[in-house]
Amino acid sequence: MSHFSVLVIGNDVAGQLAPYDENLEVERYVEVKEPGNHWFAADARKSLGLDEDAPVTAEQVVAYHNGQYANEASLFVHEGQVGKWSTRNPKSKWDYWREGGRWHGFWLLNAEGAETLALAAHVEAARYEALKATAEYSEFAAILSRLGGKDWDPPNSKRGVRANSAIKRHVDLAGMRAEAEDDARKQWTVYVAAVCDAVREHGMGEPWSQIYERAMGSPIDAPDLPNHDAINRARHEWRVQPYIRALCSHHDLWWINDPHGYFGPDLDEHSCDAFVKRAGDCAFAPYAVVKDGEWAAKGRMGWFGMSDEQVSQTGWNDRVAALIESLKPNARLTIVDCHI
Fold first, then answer.
1. Fewer beta carbons within 10 Å, N or C terminal of the chain?
2. CA gap 162, 155 in Å, rounded
3. CA dist 221 to 37, 147, 170, 213, 224, Å?
4. Per-residue pLDDT for 35 more than 60?
5. Interacting residues of 95 by C-beta distance below 8 A, sequence separation 6+
6. What is the CA radius of gyration of the chain?
């Protein structure tokens, strides 16, 4: 399962997100999937004695599924694709959401925003005390949320006065960029200290994409299903590199699965400056944006944090920055933690 951040622009957050609810049922329609990427494609290949990366037809996938799972809803061939009847929302993006969540306190407020929040907090705190003795938990939880987050949200360790929702003119966008750049410089220092000895002796090694392409004989973004033996050998070759071993042994860096892309190709000052700039550009760019009920995203988020990355990070950062710049000063910006 995955959590991802969504910026909702406008006042009706719930209403704008509602059309993308995975739990929403719609009128029955034919849902189709390309046969080679179907859930049962691998099993169909195996039953036919085909190689793991061999092409399969919709007829072969349908025949395998319907023969093995007669008690389930049947699949059928639809215009060369694998089809099935469905009432699943084709626009689904999330199965639940809440303001803030893992991005609690996302917006850094300027002086005017902090003063406005303090006044609102004083009023809401008085209302909270009046309701506390008699109200249901859900009623005063909503008040807490407007004060900056529900009581189960993680504590926010970032600096300054912050909020999950604010109008544009109350947000310190320049301060958020500077904060992100400062954090990136600190992370760069930790990174260099962790890998410098390995790099000095053995170099930076090969990036994952290069090892993958050599092992698989195709680019990393090729649509063909991988040969599992080959990809496992490639993973081992990547992990045993001294640079990667040094990185993965550090408790603050082990999670970075593409360090060459994340930090850059070298440990020099140019790579450091580029890394810091990228961090600043990402400071207020969420995974997706909803405005006027329309959903736009860098990619399609799937289970376990996997995404098809349809737009480059740089391109996405530029789009979000231009969008926020174009908004009126009183446009409301709300950060939402979505789950799928």
1. N
2. 11
3. 14, 44, 41, 10, 9
4. yes
5. 21, 22, 23, 339, 340
6. 24
Looking at the structure, do residues 12 and 80 belong to the same domain, yes or no?
Answer: no
Residues 201 and 272 in one domain: yes
- Residue 139: predicted pLDDT: 54
In this structure, the answer to whether residues 109 and 145 fall within a common structural domain is yes
Domain count, the chain: 3
pLDDT at 326 over 70: yes
**Between 228 and 287, whose confidence is greater?**
287
Whether the pTM exceeds 0.90: the reply is: no
One-letter amino acid of 223: P
Residue 8 and residue 155 share a domain:
yes
DSSP 92: -
What does DSSP assign to residue 297? E
Nearest residue to 103 (alpha-carbon basis) of 278, 286, 257, 291: 286
Token couple for 310: 């349809």
Six-digit token pair at 126?
A: 């008085």
Domain span holding position 61: 25-88
Look up residue 171 and give its DSSP letter: B
Vertex 17: Cα angle to 11 and 22 (nearest 5): 165
Spatial contact of 215 and 222, defined as CB atoms under 8 Å apart: no
Phi and psi at 167, nearest 5°, equal: -85, 155
Looking at the fold, whether 214 and 300 belong to one and the same domain comes out as no
Structure-block tokens of residue 140: 């005063």
